[in-house]
Specification:
257 residues, single chain, Rossmann fold, alpha/beta, globular
Length: 257
């Protein structure tokens, strides 16, 4: 990750660390339950949670893994995750700061998790290769991220929405792109599913601490967009603004060859 993009990510997420710990969309849901179900079946001893954010995935995996490493680029986010894990009594979670494109691990983990983060990676191919290299042979990558839309117009619309809300957003990837990224990293897809996740607008925009003007401009952009673009993401409008929209999340289990 370039220094410029790394600073942008840190600027966006450092002030919002506590909000991510409190986020209901990150704390649970069918998506996290699916990843945890896959993880339990694998019976891992050592787990690496990349881009841990508020630490919810690391905490969930600490219930059955012997040792979990929660890894994140943003120091305030890592500290918030550390406090969260300690309040939940998770003594088997360690914390490390760094860039996903330069992981200081090699073949040491049974499972690597990465949940709702890859759309922020400047070089997602390099990140996936690094995560694969952190796995022991036969280990599993459990990955979840926003699924890119196959329609170009709809994809361009939601990219603009995402970047206005969070300038560190790079883009979301389509299923065919993820298949190529995984193959290129020496990973074989073993299981996948798509889960819908509703994003309450006030909470979603509020976590990024948008200015009143930026939020007003974003609301207007959504309301004035073609109906087909809004329908592609199930945007729900109110008389005064936006109520919510729906992301599709791709969840993949891929094993290292």
């Amino acid at each position: 990750m370039t220094d410029t993009h790394a600073r942008l990510v840190q600027q966006q997420f450092g002030p919002s660390a506590a909000d991510y710990v409190a986020s209901s969309g990150h704390a649970g849901g069918r998506d996290l339950e699916t990843l945890v179900g896959w993880g339990r079946a694998l019976r891992p001893r050592r787990v690496l949670d990349v881009a841990t954010g508020g630490g919810h995935t690391a905490l969930a995996f600490s219930a059955f893994a012997e040792h979990v490493v929660a890894y994140d680029l943003t120091a305030p986010m890592l500290e918030a995750a550390r406090r969260f894990a300690r309040t939940r009594g998770a003594a088997n979670v360690a914390f490390a700061a760094g860039d996903v494109e330069a992981l200081p691990f090699h073949q040491g983990f049974d499972v690597v998790t990465c949940r709702i983060a890859a759309h922020h990676f400047a070089n997602v191919g390099a990140a996936v290769r690094q995560m694969a290299q952190a796995l022991r042979p036969g280990g599993s990558l459990l990955l979840q991220d926003i699924l890119g839309h196959d329609d170009r117009v709809a994809a361009a619309f939601i990219l603009e929405v995402e970047k206005r809300r969070d300038p560190s957003h790079v883009r979301s990837y389509r299923a065919v792109e993820w298949k190529a990224l995984l193959r290129g990293a020496g990973l074989t897809s073993m299981d996948e599913t798509v889960v819908s996740k509703i994003r309450p607008w006030e909470e979603w925009t509020g976590r990024m601490r948008m200015t009143a003007q930026a939020r007003s401009d974003l609301d207007r952009f959504v309301r004035e967009a073609p109906a087909a673009c809004r329908e592609a993401f199930v945007f729900r409008l109110t008389a005064d603004g936006v109520e919510s929209f729906t992301d599709r999340m791709l969840l993949v289990r891929a094993d290292r060859d």
